[in-house]
Design a protein that fits this description.
Layout lengths: L2 H11 L2 E9 L2 E12 L3 E8 L2 E9 L3 E5 L2 H12 L17 H10 L4 E5 L6 E10 L3 E6 L11 E4 L5 E4 L2 H7 L7
Antiparallel strand pairs: 1-2, 1-5, 2-3, 3-4, 4-10, 6-7, 6-10, 7-8, 8-9
């Protein structure tokens, strides 16, 4: 079964999966959760860790090296069902998964802040904040730091440098309520 066929199967069956992603230079990331949607190029995942949902992540299908749904994951899934959590597996936002540009425009329309990352060890970056501008090949994000201070200017990020975007998670939503400007 191909990666794409696995994506379709696990999305249709609402299976808990662990997805191994190659983010370059022998750097790998594990994503855990439920596949809500996909396009030819991207996967929209509802993140789950320790039986708790915590936001959404979108990443390129081309980065996926393995999708796991083994006995451990099936047992996890059965617990989620018994706990009444599987009924919460739904798409709460209309996210156009056609391209990075359409994805960021869709997230911008939710009025939620997001996390944009390059998870590669050698080219790592982590930007968190409001999407200010979406262009054809890049976006601008008004980043904030762990103390809640907003940067003076938005940061430009090229789509080709991004390995994932996440949003509507507890950390980002909570911090976003307390953002401040340096004086």
């Amino acid at each position: 079964m191909t990666i794409f066929e696995k994506i379709e199967k696990h999305q249709a069956e609402k299976n808990y999966v662990k997805i191994k992603r190659d983010v370059g230079n022998k750097s790998y990331i594990l994503s855990h959760g439920y596949i809500l949607d996909h396009s030819f190029d991207f996967v929209f995942l509802k993140n789950n860790d320790d039986f708790l949902f915590n936001g959404f992540t979108i990443f390129p299908i081309s980065s996926i090296t393995k999708i796991r749904h083994n006995n451990y994951d099936q047992f996890f899934d059965s617990i989620m069902e018994r706990e009444g959590q599987k009924k919460l597996i739904e798409i709460p936002y209309n996210i156009d998964l056609e391209s990075w540009k359409s994805i960021f425009n869709s997230i911008k329309n939710t009025n939620l802040n997001c996390v944009v990352e390059n998870e590669n060890n050698e080219r790592f970056f982590f930007k968190i904040g409001e999407i200010v501008k979406v262009k054809r090949r890049s976006l601008k994000i008004l980043n904030f730091d762990p103390a809640g201070y907003l940067d003076g200017e938005p940061t430009k990020i090229k789509y080709k440098e991004i390995s994932s975007v996440s949003f509507d998670d507890n950390y980002t939503n909570t911090m976003s309520k307390y953002l401040r400007i340096r004086k």
